[in-house]
C-alpha cells in the first residue's frame, strides 16, 4: 500500500509498504477513506514538539471501511463504515474500566512517535486497530465528516470536563478548529454568553459562524477591557486553546470567584500562576486531554445535523498532494481551516 512517511523533520516521502496484517483475533483491517490533518501534525513535523520522531506515518483523525476482521471480532463485519478512537487504549486498566480511556496506563496515540512509544497512523491506505476502539457511523455521515468526529470529540470533552453551568459566561481563547468545536459544544450544552478571541480575523469570522456571541481580535484591541465590558463580574470559564503562558495568565485574571480555567492547548511547558488568588478565589485549573468515552455522543450529534462541519470539509484532497498542503497549513494560509486527505487518490 501507499503511505505518507515523515522520513525526516519536514520531509515527506511516499513509500510502498506492506498492508498491515491482523495480528490479534480482536483486530480489524480498515481501508482508510478520509483522514484529516491535526494541528499537532503540522507543529510536530518540524520537530517542535518531540512527538513526531521520524520516521513515522502520522494521522489520527480518520474514517474508513472494514475490509477484514479477526476471528474473535464480535461487533463488526466486512463492509462496515467506521471511525476509530485516536487513542489506542488497553481496555482493562483502572482508567479504562471507568471510562477514562484517554488516561489509560498503556495509551498510545496513533501517528505519534515520542520517547515512550511509536505507533503508525492513518496517512496510508490501510490501518489495523482492535475492535474495542472502533465505532460504527450511520450511512448519512460522509467519510470526510466522520474524520472530524475525533477533533469534535476533543472540543466536546473539554466542555464536559469544564462542568458548564446553565447560562455561564465563557471565553474561548483561540478560535481554530478545536476552538470552533468548543464553541459549538457550548451552544449545545446551554452556555450563556460566548466570547471568542484570536489574533486572526479569519478565525474570528469562523468563531462567529460557529455561534460565538462576541469576537475580539486581541492583536488589534485591548481584549481584557473589552471582555470586562461584556462580563463586568468576570468569567465563569476560560478555555485556553492556545496553551501559551501569557494567554493562560490573562485568562485566569479574568475569572470570577469559583471560576474554571480549562487548559486545552499544549504550547508552553510551564506557566506561572498567582497561587494566592487561586486559593482565596477558589479557582480551578482543569486539564483536558483528547477525549474519552464521548465518541457515541459525538457521532449522534453529528449524524443528527446539530454540528456544523461545513467550513471544515472544503478541502478533501488526494493524499498524493499531501506535501504541498502541509506547506500551506504551515504558512497558516487564510481560510484554510482544515485539510482532509483521501488516501484512495
Ligand atoms: Zn489531533
Ligand atoms: Zn487502559
Automatic annotation (TrEMBL):
Domain Enoyl reductase (ER): residue ranges: 7-341
Pfam families recorded: ADH_N, ADH_zinc_N
Coiled-coil segments on the chain, per record: none
Required co-factors: Zn(2+)
InterPro entries for the chain: ADH-like_C, ADH-like_N, ADH_Zn_CS, ER, GroES-like_sf, NAD(P)-bd_dom_sf, Zn_alcohol_dh
Record PROSITE patterns: ADH_ZINC
Gene Ontology molecular function: any one: oxidoreductase activity, acting on the CH-OH group of donors, NAD or NADP as acceptor
CDD domains associated with the record: sugar_DH
Keywords: Metal-binding, Oxidoreductase, Zinc
Endpoints of the signal sequence: none
Family designation: Belongs to the zinc-containing alcohol dehydrogenase family.
UniProt name for this protein: Enoyl reductase (ER) domain-containing protein
